[in-house]
Amino acid sequence: LWGRGIYFAEKSCYSDEFAFHPPANSPDSVANRELAPTEQCRGHTEHSERELILAKLLVGRAKEIMQPRPDLTLPPRIDISSPQRYDAVTSYTRGENGIPTRVWIVYENGRAYPDYLVRYCRHNNDRN
């Protein structure tokens, strides 16, 4: 929506739509580990296990842009006559579930620190 950048969402339900699906035959898959019954994905299928990265983000000066700008490869300039740019772009969007969430888009890798890898199981009724 806001160009070629790295997207971060305030609400994990939005990020869940883009979460990584580890293969069921992966040695790290919940389905292939000996876990207590409360830790297992009940009714595990290849499509119910997900992974998200919980990251710390250095936003800096963010420009709020309400309309999509798919052409962005860098944040916009602070002033048209200056070479200085904003550090990030921010806006609101809705996922498939219709819940609005704030998103931040950065255009350089050094602004995010991956803090945790979160592995979870999603069940069909979790989306309601």
Summarize this, please?
This protein is mainly beta. It contains 1 helix and 6 strands.
Would you give an account of this structure?
- The longest helix is centred in the first third of the chain and has 4 residues, at 12-15.
- The chain starts with 5 loop residues before the first strand and ends in a 7-residue tail after the last strand.
- The chain is elongated.
- The strands form two sheets. The chain has a four-stranded mixed β-sheet. A two-stranded antiparallel ribbon has the order 2-6.
- By secondary structure, the chain is mainly beta.
- The chain is built from one helix and six strands, in the order E-H-E-E-E-E-E.
- It has one helix spanning 12-15, and strands at 6-9, 49-57, 62-64, 88-94, 100-106, 112-121.
Q: What structural class should be given to the helix and strand makeup?
A: mainly beta
What is the string of helix and strand elements?
EHEEEEE
- The Cα radius of gyration reads 18 Å
- Helix coverage percent: under 10%
Distance between the termini: 25 Å
Please describe the biggest sheet, giving its number of strands, its sense, and whether it closes into a barrel: 4 strands, mixed
Mean pLDDT: 83
The overall strand count is: 6
Strand content: 25-35%
- Strand order across the biggest sheet? 1-5-4-3
Spans of at least 5 consecutive residues with low confidence: 35-40
What form results from the Cα inertia axes?
A: elongated
The quaternary structure here is single chain
The number of helical segments is 1
What's the arrangement of secondary structure elements?
Layout: E1 6-9, H1 12-15, E2 49-57, E3 62-64, E4 88-94, E5 100-106, E6 112-121
Parallel strand pairs: 3-4
Antiparallel strand pairs: 1-5, 2-6, 4-5
